[in-house]
Amino acid sequence: MTAVSDASEQLTSTRATPAEKRATAVGIVLVLLAAFTFWAFGLDVDSGFESQFNLSLPGARYENLSWVVDSRAVGFIVALVLAFLGGFILRRSHLKWTNLSLSVGLALFVFSFLTWAAADGAFSFVGMLTSTVVLSVPVTLGALTGLMCERVAVINIAIEGQLLTSAFVGTIVGSAAGIWVGLFAAMLTGALLGAVLAVLAIKYRMDQIIAGVVINIFALGLTSFLARRVLAQSQELNSPGRFGSVKIPFLGDIPVIGPMFFDHNMFVYITFILVIALHFGLFYTRWGLRSRSVGEHPKAADTVGINVYRTRYRNVILGGVIAGFGGGFLTLAQVSRFEENLTAGIGFIGLAALIFGRWRPLGVLAAGLVFGFARALQQKLGILGTPIPSEFLSMTPYIVTIIVVAGVVGRARPPAADGQPYIKD
Amino acid sequence: MTLELRGITKQFPGVLANDDVNLSASEGEIVALLGENGAGKTTLMNILYGLYTPTAGEVIVDGKALVLESPADAIDAGIGMVHQHFMLVPVFTVAENVVLGDEPTKRMGWLDSRRAKKTVTDISGRYGLDVDPDAIVEDLPVGFQQRVEIIKVLAREARFLVFDEPTSVLTPPEVERFFEIVNGLKADGKGIIFISHKLGEALEIADRIVIMRRGKTVAEVNPRDVDEPKLAELMVGRPVDLVVNRTESDPGDVVLSVNDLTVLDDRGRNAVDRLSIEVRAGEIVGIAGVQGNGQTELVESLTGMRPSLGGVVRLKGLDVTSKSPRAIHNLDVAHVPEDRQKSGLVLQFTVTENIVLDSYHQAPISRGVRMDWGQATDRALRLVEEYDVRTPSTEVKVSTLSGGNQQKVIVAREFDRDVTLVIASQPTRGIDVGSIEYIHSRIVEERDAGAAVLIVSSELDEIMALSDRILVMYEGRVVAEFDGSASTTDIGLAMLGSRPDEEAS
Amino acid sequence: MSDAEMPQEPPAEPGIPEGEPPEDRASSEMYRRVTGIGTSAGRAMVVPALAVLTALIIGAFIIAVTDVDTLSVWGDDPAEAFRLTVSGIFDAYRALLVGSVGSLDAISETLFAAAPMILAGLAVAVGFQAGLFNIGVNGQMHIGGMAALWVGFTFAIPAVFHVPLVIAAAIAGGALWAALAGFLKARTGAHEVITTIMLNFIALFLVDYLLKSSLFQAPGRNDPISQPANPTSVFVTLFSDYRLNIGFIVALLAVAFVWWLMYRTTIGFEFRAVGYSPSGGRYAGMSVAWVYVSVMAVSGALAGIAGANQVVGLEPYRGISNFAGNVGFDAIALALLGRSHPVGVLFAGLLFGGLRAGGREMQGAAGIPIDLVLVLQALIIVMIAAPELVRAIYRVKTPDQEITTVTSTGWGA
After folding, report:
1. Closest-CA distance of chain A to residue C164, Å
2. Nearest chain C alpha carbon to B83
3. Range with the lowest mean pLDDT among A74-83, B427-436, C240-249?
4. Which one of A146, A381, B69, C131 is least enclosed by Cβ atoms within 10 Å?
């Protein structure tokens, strides 16, 4: 065996591991952000401007809480911190801290951006956080639908169509028979489309992405067709009313936290409960163990007597119920009428949240909140009247989605059998 | 109590996999089922385990005919199976894998992980298996994964255990340990069916040997009455020469030199760790080792499929470290990849398209961007003839060919030029004896024509039959070197990571 | 060597169909290679034909149950209600037929509508053959169309130069926008399905922004609408009095080009090899990253031309919000119906062009919203992509066909 030579020892250190390359990229991004922050949110802001962040909503028990900062100083301080973080990461000595530094850096950058946007003005910080939670609901529910399916290795691209169709059915039934019946009908619709996907993917082993896309086209076509042929003639079928907010006593009065989490309609609460229930269900129960085994190694599951097909059918259909619930939220709580293509890509953003959340319920919730924040930001900035054109603000959630799936958080491992039909004999 | 398979026939579209097969096993008996790849052994076992339904015939336990429609039925009948490809969920713990499908639970389906772990430790203790219930399966060595499979079967109170090619992933010392475990099970009154294509092992462990050929049971013998050549003849249907005919090697200049190569695997660990080797013209160097010790990553790195983290690879003195696959191919390197279906071939392409897969961008197959399909077909027809590829036409999809013929398509494509270096990974995995003999002789021919040859195989027999020099890889490093005449025991020990030279230094 | 012919045991892992008799595939494969057209034509048409038929039957059912006025009649006079329902369906489908092939004008309208669909369908088909699912045709049409539009109203040069220049701009715009998704996939593993959908939305907003910017907006307007393209840049009509223009000729040329590219060049060979097996392609020395980027670029280029057709091939030759409409999504159905083969896409495009032209007639004459066509399309694809469904319904034996290659296995992220 050949002896170790000094020359090659040096070569060893010249090539970077993927983790090191990533650290370099993240470090450069942070330094660039620092430079941009310094210039745009620091130098470019008139000195003496103050940004006021309102921490309570009008009419709350503790009114008129607010936080005022020197706009320019925030820009400079954030730029400094970003530059420090960037330099730290570029040294590549603490590779484990790459993601944390990136998250902290991005959060600071967004804060600095808000300070700039609110310079010489006031900004409802709590209002934005509250809408973040509300707007995260459909994305999270969509992602949970995907989670139910992909954990048993069925890719569900049809979430968008499930949300759209169930929102439509919820509107009509809700208008005719009351919102609770409407919600039930919406969930049933979601389940039905889930069953269609399941049959196409499991029984007919159709390419799952194609199956999902087909369901989406079908959903869009059918709801638009019916909206024009039925809803247009009978407007009374397009006003179902909506589920109101239920403020939780005491908790709802806590500043900031109260309006954010404890003063919502029941969809918001149930979404949070569902996330926690799925977390424990997936990782601590028999159902979860079996479901995950079907998603990771269906043949292994089969050989110990687990019915792979039945497990897949059941979970995909249950996922459909969740999507139906999300569809119900859209037309029975968020707005109370149906419009053509009102989902506008929420289902696909949910898919991105599933990947961002690494196929875990808690991760999905966190991802959902990030997307909710992006949408809330877009809305609030529109009100503030920044020089940024509204079209670009509207693009925000979609751009965030691309950045997320392109791997801001590094790569995660999907269920091993994801997307593969199981063939038995 | 006995388990009996009577008159089993299984017809796949166009293939008669099992034809009136009979097999039985009693409690406390080890029956070896011998047959070469493609003889129908696995199909038979899948029928026994309820994965396939037979076209005809029945499975009888204790005199009662059973209808096995799913593995659950087989488990209920006391039949357990240790599959060749382990049926373990890699990301689960040992305990989770063992209880899967039969989970101890508290209220509302809540898993009782304490009872699950106790099941594992109990069985592990009883048979001396030494398995940690909390370990994640994908982190365990292959030998231990196999023990997890055994625990899984025993936890379901199986009376009959079927082992499908259980030793193919084990080192010789591990095989010995495995035989002890199997004998322990036998002493405990379990009936055991041992499926293998390795003659020596069947002779060593079995009480009875049943031989299958082309889907039929052709003989049943007592191991005391036969020897290896006789078994081989029964298995293949003609006398087989078990030794590859080759002359002494005459090594020339160094062709491939690898210095301190470090390569990461997909999970970011050093799969190849400062490894150095040399291969000379006119010699065959075999790399032995248990699968998963960095061989895959080594070959991928040498052929440009995986970037290296450190070290230098030289080909005839030229630095080719982390060069592209095409650049390395253009230096007359032939590469027979580990997984013919995944990377060696494009399965949905025709034989012709696969034959020109590496040369489609060069004249005469193409000029500029225009493909000349006439030329491509001519080459395919010539190579199919020359390399004895059995195919109805060069225009059929390569996926319709048998494994041996698929592998010959690859060998034909790769060897059809003046090759300086051959890198062949698992060149004969899962193919029939005829094709194995043919491919081995072709490799030796390349050596004799002056090529340097690097063989990677987890089949120690293959390494020993072909190699002029043997290197043993363990945890990403070469831990020992032997000449072609070394003993299996020494190599086997090295495969477990013990270095013969370590005590000396 | 007598054993070499022995068939392999079915492998433990699923995925590869084993032990199927090779003869059927062999002959169809050779036929495909010789003619460049799909499997033996007669049998190959069975599934698509039955799929279209079934879709029309289900469509009839949908028309019937959504006929609000007639539904109330069933209680009083079932016979009358039945008559009304049947005549409703009859009227709708007659309008569909008349509007698509009932006159020279109808045929012109069908071909006119088919042109962008064929182009967009080819875009999706090229992606399919290389294993990429380009759902972003809509966005690529928008970007390509905007580029074409800009060239169209900025320059004033003779039509012989202007029209090709417009097409070149459309190709560049669409190709760049699509290549972005290819690059993201190659570089980061981001799945093209998600990135292309997101790029659709982004393109949509970008177009709205541009249409209101001074660069594009028609003078004196406040809404998002562009200046008209110069007359020298628009797609000239082929016959006076009919709308059919050279866009259709461009589409036919694109069909021929894609066929040549995919089956007769080394580039197409690489596209298909990587499409079937990325690891196989990599092993053979192909750059998978390059293939992803260039496949998306070719696909986007075709989409870009389709986008150009929506502005310089369509009165009033201006850009408006969402000018690509549904064509980008019809394209997916079309590529599936045409089995990702250029000639198949051509015929599928003619069918869908007919549905579109007829659908407008149906909406005008029979009052059935044209969205029904979307429903019909979705039903057609389901049955095309899951032919077992058709076999189950009609109990027919049809050949296994697979030119479409996309197989989704996880997200690769």
Report:
1. 31
2. C12
3. B427-436
4. B69
Using CA coordinates, name the residue in chain A closest to C333. A214
Q: What values do phi and psi take at C134, rounded to 5?
A: -85, 95
Nearest CA to A247 out of A261, A260, A259, A263 is that of A263
> What is the amino acid identity at position B203?
L
> At B341, is the pLDDT very low, low, confident or very high (cuts 50, 70, 90)?
confident
Residue A21: pLDDT band (50, 70, 90) is confident
Contact C388 A204 (CB under 8 A): yes
The strand order across the sheet containing B56-61 reads: B15-26, B2-12, B56-61, B64-66
Taking CB atoms and an 8 Å limit, are A207 and C408 in contact across chains? Answer: yes
In the numeric block, the tokens 């509300």 are attached to A134
Please give the CATH superfamily to which domain B254-332+418-504 belongs.
Answer: P-loop containing nucleotide triphosphate hydrolases (3.40.50.300)
pLDDT digits (tens, 9 = 90+) for A256-285: 888 888 889 999 999 999 999 999 999 999
Instruction: Look at the domain B2-236 and name its fold.
Output: Rossmann fold (3.40.50)
Q: Which of B405, B353, B393 is nearest to C281 (CA)?
A: B353
Residues of B in contact with A2 (CB under 8 A): 259, 276-278
Q: Contact B320/B314 with Cβ under 8 angstroms?
A: yes
Question: How far is Cα A100 from Cα A172, in angstroms, rounded to an integer?
Answer: 46
Nearest Cα residue in chain B from C12: B85
| A285 → closest Cβ in B110, B277, B309 | B110
Q: How many domains does chain C fold into?
A: 2
**pLDDT less than 50: residues of chain C:** 1-40, 401-409, 412-413
Helix (H) or strand (E) holding C109: helix C104-129
In a domain, C223, yes or no: yes
Domain assignment of residue C225, yes or no: yes
Alpha-carbon torsion C291, C295, C296, C298, what sign? positive
Q: What is the pLDDT of residue C190?
A: 85
Distance CA B141, CA C226 (A): 67
Angstroms from A425 CA to nearest CA on chain B: 6
Report ipTM (2 d.p.). 0.84
B431, B403 Cβ separation under 8 angstroms: yes
What is the token pair recorded at A19? 């983790």
Region of residue C308 (phi > 0: left; psi between -120 and 50: alpha; otherwise: beta): alpha
Closest CA to B69 of A425, C413, A395: A425
- Across the interface, whether the CB atoms of B397 and C25 are under 8 A apart is answered yes
Given the candidates 1.10.3470.10, 1.10.569.10, 3.40.50.10490, 3.20.20.70, the CATH classification of the domain at A128-408 is 1.10.3470.10
Q: What is the pTM of this model?
A: 0.85
Within 8 A by CB and 6+ apart from B402, the residues are B38, B390, B431, B432, C4, C5, C6, C7, C8
- Using a 10 angstrom Cβ sphere, with 0-12 exposed, 13-18 middle and 19 or more buried, the burial of residue B483 is exposed
Digit-coded pLDDT (tens) for B324-336: 999 999 999 999 9
Interface test with C, best of A150, A375, A391 (most C CBs within 10 A): A391
Total residues belonging to chain A: 425
Q: Report whether A290 contacts B100 (CB < 8 A).
A: yes
Q: What is the pLDDT of residue A412?
A: 67
Q: Do C410 and A157 touch (CB under 8 A)?
A: no
* Measured distance CA(C197)–CA(C215) in Å, rounded: 26
- Cα separation, B129 vs B181, in Å, equals 8
Nearest chain A residue (CA) to C55? A218
Q: DSSP secondary-structure letter at C217?
A: B
Check residue B499 and give its pLDDT. Answer: 55
For residue C351, give both structure tokens.
């069918």
List pLDDT tens digits, range A42-61. 888 888 888 888 888 877 77
